[in-house]
Amino acid sequence: MTRPTFFSLVLALLLSACGDGTAPETAQEALSQMSWPEIEAEARGATLTHMMWTGDPLINDYMQSYVKPEVKQRYGIELNIVSGQGSTIVQTMMAELQAGKTDSEVDMMWINGETFYQLRQIKGLHGPWTEQLPNAQFIDLDNPFIGVDFQQPVDGYECPWGNVQMAIIYDTLRTPNPPQNRAELLAYAKAHPGTFTIDTRFTGLTFLKALLIDIAGGQKALAGGFDEAKYGQYAPQLWDYLRELKPYLWKEGQSFPEGVAPMHQMFANGELHFTMSNNDCEVDNKIMQGVFPETARGYVWELGTIQNSHYLGIAKHSAHKAAAMVVANFMISPEAQYRKMDPAVWGDGTVLSLDKLPEDWAGKFRNLPNRQYAPNREAIQDKALMELAPEYMIRLAEDFRKEIIEG
Amino acid sequence: MSRLTKIVLIGLILFPFAFLLMLSLGRQWPYPVLLPEQWSLSNWQVVLGGSEGLGNSVLLSVLLSLSVATLSTGLSFWVSRHIAYHPKREAWLSLAYFPYVFAPVILAACLQFFFIVGGLYGTFGGVLLAQLFITFPYGVIFFSSFWNERLRSMEELVKTLGGSTRQAYAKVLVPVAKGALMTCFFQLFLISWFEYGLTNLIGVGKVPTLTLRVFQYVNEANVFLAALASCLLIMPPVILLWLNRQVVFQERNI
Amino acid sequence: MQERWAAYSSRSLFVWLAAVPIVAGVSYALLYSLGLIGIMAEGLTLVHWQEVLTDTAFWRTLGFSLFVAAVSILLSLLLALALVLRAPQAFTRGTLSFFIYLPLSIPAIVMAFFIFQLLGKGGWLSRLSYQLGLISALEQFPDWVNDNYGIGIIVAHVIMATPFFTIFFANLYQNERLGEYLQLAATLGAKKRQRIFRVAVPVLLRRGLATVFLYFMFVMGSYEIPLLVGSQSVQMVSVRTIQRLQRYNLGDIPEAYAISVAYTVMVVILLGGLLWYNRKQMGRA
């Protein structure tokens, strides 16, 4: 076997990369014409692969012990859960589309705004499909935090599943008066150096977005599409503020945690006085698991924090779209949403509108046991900020690395 | 080596295991206490009880890793011999380093495309092959240090005495290299067992090894679960070691 | 005849399993980084390469990876050789020969977690220091993880590499019958120091060079340990690559592939240097 033979083989394989990644359009047409009973019939007996983040045992338990057996029993669908987060999902979809695969390995995915944006970019999502779900009538699509994802209308390409707001977590014993704005944060950091930081991934960037909105003067200023001029005006002020804050941050701002998990750990053992989470109910979960001290609380500061929803998406070239729709429909049913919202199970906010629900369900939702440690949902609603356009996040991520981490 | 030194060494070796076990049984570990404030088996119950099919994952992992280790060790032992006696030995050997330039995750990202095109994506066979890519060359390099003149002359001796190649292997080479074979087998088994990034990417989570199912807890905020997951990851190889004790640690009197 | 066939087929298998995947992978990465393939590709472009090569952080990453790997390997070699030469039989027979295998059953991710919990400011050693009165507050404990010198990373790798090298060199010692050579040297009048540094160490290192270099490559390209225990401002190469792969901006992904290819080139150069050095040594010997 000679070298040239190898290279030609490799080249041949690479040339096959020039396949187009469009899934048969006819199949999609057919699906959108079908009635719901027909879809349920089509779905029966299918094996559905659902990719989601599996790092929380409570969420895993909800899916494995409740959702999985229920869809098996009611609809005869075998739900196969595989582990993967945002970038893994996008990478998998990209590779499959590039190779011209006609049926994807992953059918349904748990995604949020940034992944949605990326998947739309590579045309990896099937849609529109959410309108066909019977339970979609209860979804609060008028709510800007649910019907709009990163300033892009959902358009039926992803189905809202849960709703969360970012909260900062602190210890009431150590920090009886947590900072409420930028100035107070700076003062606190100066008084207690090395106790505050942000991570370099989604949560940290979400926090930066809230700061940027505050510098710009409020939600309205940065609403709508990306505006280079506005970014150029306000971002430098953000970096100036961070540079001022930097020497008082954890590790003097020389390093930042790679994600929230190490931050939570350092908060738990006292190295940090604060940690953050995109899920406002996180503090309840963690106290229940014995990870955070019982004196920990979550709060949303005066400036407001970003509220957003997370969604379910279907792969464009999935062979089990009907099954995905049926399972998604179950997951947004009042029953499943109610159970999900229970702080003892998960505590995730619902995407259903209480006004649109039948009275008995609305009553049940209202009477859910309250969270003990997380902020009250209604109380933080007026401090909720909408997500910014995706380009803001791209620029913030890049400039944060350039200006602050490597600067 | 004095008895004291031995005891100190063994203590140092056992410390991480004890530490992880201790954390896995804990709840609440605020600074500056040395041991967790509360002890509880609830973490173990949550992970072991809540995950169905964990037993299947263990079986699958054992099957996968044993296959990979056996295939790789056997093949690399055979191949490394032919390479070691080749005049251009260094050049050949240098080829074996290439798969390790990248971390397995990155190699998997580069090869993902080919696995999809080849229809091996998301299959047990695909994951097996991918793991062979990162274990086989390791074996070749590992054994390259062991082929020397003495072994060569032993082989020659067998030949002159009328023995076949098979006998040379069975009666002479394998017994002599037993320690090396076992060490290599164990190392390759471990590489396969602990492999996460590559298995996850090529197998798309459809080849649910124990490592895959448990790995995500190690990187998360709950240190007690992370410690527990670590214990679960470590236990099977330790058990394997213990079972192999007799085979691995025979006295070698040549 | 059968021997010839065996030799030929074994070498073919070797090329198939070792060389083809990597050639395919690197070609894919190269084409991707040049914008020729990929979902978001727009055609031949050098902009990604430009981005990568003009970024000082990239060169720092390469240098830092080399530094961490070199220090880790050096320290582990010192420890392993000291242990083996002190008590060559202890690691091939007896209780210690079992226990020395145990640390090998700890994977990188667990070691990273363990080191973080041990050496971090809120970690076990810090708590011990507090209890012993050596420090009075968490902040006083030194920065041993997430620091700019890679202390935590180095410690983690040393703990992982030392047992491996110990076993390896102990086995090599037996295989090369080093004990007999050292006896011979002793009868010829060599002092202990000479026996160690002129006979034992050179033999062990020269015979084991291939494996040592492989481990060096492992450490350089390691991912989980630097991710958890390293700093974000000075990264090791795999952490940086994966970060680019997972970037929010999909258009940046070719940069990750460019970094991979550049890193491959660097390793090939190192390997070439090693081969050349080896050849010189053989020539001299």
Can you give a write-up of this model?
The complex is a heterotrimer of chains A (407), B (254) and C (285). By secondary structure, chain A is an alpha/beta fold. Chain A contains 17 helices and 11 strands. Residues 1-8 and 15-26 of chain A have low confidence and may be disordered. A two-stranded antiparallel ribbon of chain B has the order 1-2. In chain B, α3 packs across α9, α5 (104-117) runs parallel beside α10 and α7 (149-160) runs antiparallel to α8 (165-176). Chain C has helices spanning 2-33, 47-53, 56-86, 95-99, 108-119, 124-131, 151-175, 178-187, 192-220, 224-229, 237-245, 253-284. Classes of the chains: A alpha/beta (407), B mainly alpha (254), C mainly alpha (285). Chains in contact: A-B, A-C, B-C. The interface between A and C is large, with 44 and 36 residues.
State the distance separating the first and last CA atoms of chain A. Answer: 51 Å
Continuous helix count of chain A = 17
Biggest pleated sheet of chain C: none
Largest sheet of chain A at a glance?
A: 6 strands, mixed
| Oligomeric state of the chains present here | heterotrimer
- Low confidence ranges of chain C: none
Keywords for this entry:
heterotrimer; A: 407 residues; alpha/beta; 6-stranded mixed beta sheet; 3-stranded antiparallel beta sheet; 17 helices; 11 strands; 45% helix; disordered N terminus; C: 285 residues; mainly alpha; 72% helix
Layout of SSEs?
The complex is a heterotrimer of chains A (407), B (254) and C (285).
Chain A: H1 3-15, H2 25-33, H3 36-43, E1 47-52, H4 57-75, E2 78-83, H5 86-98, E3 108-111, H6 113-121, H7 144-147, E4 148-149, E5 152-153, E6 158-165, E7 167-171, H8 182-191, H9 202-216, H10 228-245, H11 260-268, E8 274-277, H12 282-288, E9 296-299, E10 305-314, H13 321-331, H14 334-341, H15 359-366, H16 377-381, E11 384-385, H17 390-405
Parallel strand pairs in A: 1-2, 1-3, 10-11
Antiparallel strand pairs in A: 3-10, 4-5, 6-10, 7-8, 7-9
Chain B: H1 3-24, E1 26-27, E2 38-39, H2 42-50, H3 54-84, H4 89-97, H5 104-117, H6 124-144, H7 149-160, H8 165-176, H9 178-194, H10 197-203, H11 210-218, H12 223-248
Antiparallel strand pairs in B: 1-2
Helix pairs in contact in B: 1-12, 3-6, 3-9, 5-10, 6-9, 6-10, 7-8, 9-12, 11-12
Chain C: H1 2-33, H2 47-53, H3 56-86, H4 95-99, H5 108-119, H6 124-131, H7 151-175, H8 178-187, H9 192-220, H10 224-229, H11 237-245, H12 253-284
Helix pairs in contact in C: 1-12, 2-12, 3-7, 3-9, 5-7, 7-9, 8-9, 11-12
